[in-house]
Predict the structure.
Amino acid sequence: MWLFNRKGPSGFSASSTAEEVTQGIDGTGLTAIVTGASSGIGAETARVLAMRGVHVIMGVRNMSAGSDVKEAIVKEIPSAKVDVMELDLSSFESVRKFASEYNSLGLPLNLLINNAGFFGTPFKLSRDNIELHFATNHLGHFLLTNLLLDKMKKTTCESKREGRIINVSSEAHHLFQYSEGIRFDRINDQSGYSRFTAYGQSKLANVLHANELARRLKFGIASAVEILIFLIIQFPLALSPLVPENVNFSET
Ligand SMILES: NC(=O)c1ccc[n+]([C@@H]2O[C@H](COP(=O)([O-])OP(=O)(O)OC[C@H]3O[C@@H](n4cnc5c(N)ncnc54)[C@H](OP(=O)(O)O)[C@@H]3O)[C@@H](O)[C@H]2O)c1
């Protein structure tokens, strides 16, 4: 379709593949975390990063599916450096455990790709009692990003290579929205719930998170980490510090 083939300023279009976009790039020496890498876009991102020499850490909730993907990558690319770590974005405890384990591994972190996404019915609460789309797609990634930010800044300073934090959002961030935008005071309100608007709301939070984090890092921490917001296929990848009042993200 012409819409997907229309090239943007980058020279790529919505139908460009990950291999095309990364052609000629040497990722040797870089380390990336890709969330939700057990299927779909996350699995392909992990595969192509590994193909370019990046050490990929797959953050997955289904370890068996994650191991299958890893096995397929290593079979195709014998030199691939890929590890699988357990991560359930819908649980703050799991996110904290993942970040703590990662931070203690002694690995650098150049790229954080917040890709995992949930889209479903019926209305459900996470283990932390937060509507599941918002909890998984936004809050889990928000917390993960906060807990890994120091590691990324340190890596950037030591390696003198800019880091990248990428949130995978969706066109749903503007196509499916509650009329008032994000319902901060009614995240768990079932009235008027639809999976489309709940998903759209979480994806809008991804975009706002990216915008705000980019603003803070750009003006607050000089050029320690540049945030790249770009399009993979036709959706923006993004980040944001948008948290309901009852959620505490302090590390202690
Ligand atoms: N495909 C599209 O057309 C499209 C369009 C716009 C935006 N997106 C965005 O692209 C991203 C990837 O989607 P996809 O199309 O590749 O979908 P997908 O194949 O369903 O992949 C989603 C991944 O997220 C993981 N995930 C879901 N809940 C999780 C949780 N609580 N903790 C950890 N991982 C979790 C899934 O793991 P399990 O296998 O364990 O479920 C799966 O690996 C999502 O953020 C989505 O919103 C996709």
